């Protein structure tokens, strides 16, 4: 699937008379990895064909049908600034979620102070109130945008939206955002479960130009 970011060829919109005159900023698939009882999945610039540098101003990760081997665990994300030798970049984040169970009771929307980070090198937790279930039909799906990871001037912002079918039969929509508080280039991203392996699932990395 590919989405375009639209740029006009002319300062005057009236000069555009057909769709063919619109230039398309392109979302390009750079790397796809599929888990199979994997302890983690990492994307490191220059490794295995991964591009995570100044080539694109925005990168998008899509994680699809992430199914854990262990019940009631969280999908975690962390960043590296040393080509994947360590995943311990200092981060400050926010976290809120909305959830509702299959019985139609106990809906909630709120900020979760227990899931945010304040100048921490720890993992970004995507499943806080209730972990991902490991029954055959349970999983989580979402995406993360990472902005200008190669900048050596600014902090590196990111935004995550995740949807979970939890072990407790809840539908949970999680929203995480924050920044890597470093002026070093971020050149690696790792996905792993809080415990056990990623039994199955696919993670895709896209680069977005025209932004």
Provide a descriptive summary of the structure in words.
The chain has no helices and 13 strands. With 211 residues, it is mainly beta. The protein has one domain (4-11, 28-208): Jelly Rolls (Sandwich). It has a 9-stranded antiparallel sheet with strand order 1-2-13-4-9-10-11-6-7, with no helix packed on it. Strand 6 (91-101) and strand 7 form a beta hairpin. It is globular. The relative contact order is 0.32. Residues 1-10 and 18-23 have low confidence and may be disordered.
Quick recap of the structure?
With 211 residues, the chain is mostly beta strands. It has no helices and 13 strands. The protein has a single domain, classed as Jelly Rolls (Sandwich).
Poorly predicted tracts of residues? 1-10, 18-23
Q: What fraction, in percent, of the residue positions are helical?
A: under 10%
What is the count of β-strands?
13
| Named CATH architecture | Sandwich
Structure keywords:
211 residues, mainly beta, 4-stranded antiparallel β-sheet
Topology:
Blueprint: E1 4-7, E2 23-38, E3 41-44, E4 58-68, E5 75-80, E6 91-101, E7 108-111, E8 124-125, E9 140-147, E10 156-165, E11 170-180, E12 188-193, E13 198-208
Antiparallel strand pairs: 1-2, 2-13, 3-12, 4-9, 4-13, 5-8, 5-12, 6-7, 6-11, 9-10, 10-11
């Amino acid at each position: 699937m590919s989405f375009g970011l639209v740029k006009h060829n002319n300062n005057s919109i009236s000069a555009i008379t057909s769709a063919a005159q619109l230039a398309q900023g392109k979302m390009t698939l750079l790397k796809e990895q599929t888990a199979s009882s994997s302890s983690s999945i990492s994307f490191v610039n220059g490794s295995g064909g991964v591009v995570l540098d100044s080539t694109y101003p925005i990168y998008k990760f899509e994680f699809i049908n992430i199914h854990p081997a262990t019940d009631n665990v969280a999908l975690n994300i962390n960043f590296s600034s040393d080509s994947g030798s360590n995943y311990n970049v200092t981060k400050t984040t926010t976290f809120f979620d909305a959830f509702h169970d299959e019985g139609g009771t106990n809906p909630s929307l709120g900020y979760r102070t227990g899931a945010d980070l304040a100048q921490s090198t720890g993992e970004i937790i995507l499943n806080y109130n209730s972990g991902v279930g490991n029954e055959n039909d349970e999983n989580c799906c979402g995406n993360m945008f990472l902005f200008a990871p190669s900048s050596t001037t600014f902090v590196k912002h990111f935004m995550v939206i995740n949807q979970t079918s939890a072990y407790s039969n809840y539908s949970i929509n999680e929203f995480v955002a924050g920044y890597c508080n470093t002026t070093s280039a971020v050149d690696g991203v790792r996905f792993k479960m809080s415990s056990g392996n990623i039994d199955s699932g696919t993670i895709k990395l896209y680069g977005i130009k025209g932004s």
